[in-house]
């Protein structure tokens, strides 16, 4: 069975161990009450006294149905999780002496990734003695970033980490850049 974190987060009714509480809510006159008066008000309405903010002085409590309160909290958390943006990082690997055809193929993929809103981590992997061609790898990555400047911006310049020289690119805006108009006109003719 799944453990419910929200149930342990809030103290309810008799578990609240303070002398005074501040009551808030729609159906209650807001103010500072003794714990006994607050519990009595909650019991008169057949509701629960829920401690919302235990660190405040005095602690803030609300009179509400506890199960309904938990349901609303779960719903809020779900909405926040849905709104949060998940960042996807796509990797593209080059060798220090990558051919033009391979370069263009990988460039096309990087454009698609950036248009979809994903970050691109491009790196040149040096094997064995190919580490002697560090300059070629850096030139390749800078050319790659320059060719993609319409689609994304450089987050970090090329840096050597072990046997990899890495550059990070982020999309300029989610949804990407619209296709050039020339291509569409040629299709119409």
Low-confidence stretches: 175-189
Structural class: alpha/beta
Number of helices: 6
DSSP E strands, number: 8
Major sheet summary line: 4 strands, mixed
Strand order of the largest sheet: 2-1-4-3
| Mean pLDDT across every amino acid position | 80
Distance between the termini: 64 Å
Strand content: 25-35%
One letter per element, helices H and strands E, the order comes to HEEHEEHEHEHEEH
Computed over alpha carbons, the radius of gyration is 29 Å
Helix content class = 25-40%
Shape: rod-shaped
Structure, described:
- With 189 residues, this protein is α/β, with parallel strands linked by helices.
- It has helices at 5-9, 35-44, 66-83, 100-115, 134-147, 181-188, and strands at residues 20-24, 31-34, 48-53, 60-64, 89-94, 119-125, 152-161, 164-171.
- The strands form 2 sheets. It has a 4-stranded mixed sheet with strand order 2-1-4-3. Strands 5-6-8-7 form a 4-stranded mixed sheet, with helices on one face.
- Strand 3 and strand 4 form a beta hairpin.
- The chain is rod-shaped and about 80 Å long.
- Mean pLDDT is 80; it is low at 175-189.
Would you kindly provide a brief summary of this structure?
This protein is of the alpha/beta class. Helices cover 38% and strands 27% of the residues.
Short key terms for the protein model shown above:
6 helices, alpha/beta, 4-stranded mixed β-sheet, disordered C terminus
What order do the helices and strands come in, and which of them pair?
Blueprint: H1 5-9, E1 20-24, E2 31-34, H2 35-44, E3 48-53, E4 60-64, H3 66-83, E5 89-94, H4 100-115, E6 119-125, H5 134-147, E7 152-161, E8 164-171, H6 181-188
Parallel strand pairs: 1-4, 5-6
Antiparallel strand pairs: 1-2, 3-4, 6-8, 7-8
């Amino acid at each position: 069975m799944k453990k419910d974190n929200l149930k342990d987060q809030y103290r309810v009714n008799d578990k609240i161990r303070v002398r005074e509480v501040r009551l808030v809510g729609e159906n209650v006159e807001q103010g500072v009450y003794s714990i006994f008066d607050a519990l009595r008000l909650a019991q008169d309405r057949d509701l629960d006294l829920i401690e919302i903010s235990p660190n405040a002085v005095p602690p803030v409590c609300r009179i509400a149905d506890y199960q309904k309160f938990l349901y609303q909290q779960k719903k809020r958390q779900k909405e926040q999780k849905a709104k949060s943006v998940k960042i996807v990082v796509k990797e593209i690997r080059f060798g220090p002496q990558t051919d033009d055809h391979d370069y263009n193929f990988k460039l096309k993929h990087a454009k698609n990734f950036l248009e979809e809103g994903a970050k691109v981590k491009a790196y040149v992997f040096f094997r064995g003695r190919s580490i002697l061609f560090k300059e070629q790898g850096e030139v390749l990555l800078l050319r790659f970033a320059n060719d993609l400047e319409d689609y994304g911006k450089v987050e970090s310049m090329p840096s050597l980490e072990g046997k990899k020289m890495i550059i990070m690119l982020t999309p300029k805006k989610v949804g990407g850049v619209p296709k050039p108009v020339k291509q569409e006109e040629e299709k119409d003719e």
